[in-house]
Amino acid sequence: MASMQSFIVGIVLVGVTLVIGIFISAEIANQMDTSSAEQNAANDLVTALSGGSAWITILVVVGFATIVLGMLTSGLGQSSDMAGPVY
Amino acid sequence: MAQSMDKFIVGVVIIGITLVIAMFIASTIQDATYDDGLGTSTNEILTTVSNITSSSFTYSTLTDVVCGDVSGVVNSTGFVISSGNYTQTGCTLIASGSDFVGENWNITYPYTYNADSATSNASGDLVTSLSGGSAWIIILIVVGFATIVLGMLTSGLGKTTEQESTFTY
Lengths: 87, 169
Fold this sequence. Notes:
A: mainly alpha; rod-shaped; B: alpha+beta; 47% helix; elongated
């Protein structure tokens, strides 16, 4: 259960950090001379970080799938342990 | 058993609330990071203007669009339509009399809107991504409760078997 919560908090932190990072990079790019190397680099960073948001969907799906499979296997494993001796 | 149930329910609720708060934060960031967009639609054609149903402007679907007053309103033959013949509400227009109804009108208006930026797009993506998590919570709840119920059943049955097997008759 603790792993579930830390997984969600982790995803949220990653997402919000990405978005804030993109915002900061975009603001820096706006302050640079047009088409200068610095502005291009800042814009490249914005584009690169933007790709991360799309990956979060996969992270969420894989994360939840892992949690559900983990619950199933541990629950079923526990059930078979509790079944007691065979007579 | 009750302890694991408590932990499970509290965990699921915390996950759900965290997801929703995160979506709210991302959505707020999205709203705050739109770029300012503006433009003018010149001689836009509104087809078959009615006095019953409003006609929507082409740019009425832009994000948070605000349309200015229409001007240069003419019908298809170029006859000027005065402001008394129509009522504009936001980015829609409806004929207020019976004149010029059913005709195509040409209108010109300025508009402002919130244009997408890299940050707002990324924030929107984050909201969409996290929304997927809410759907998983149903599966989590079903599997979690099923595990708890199966655990209760198997532990109860296991105990009964142990008690019964103690005595051999």
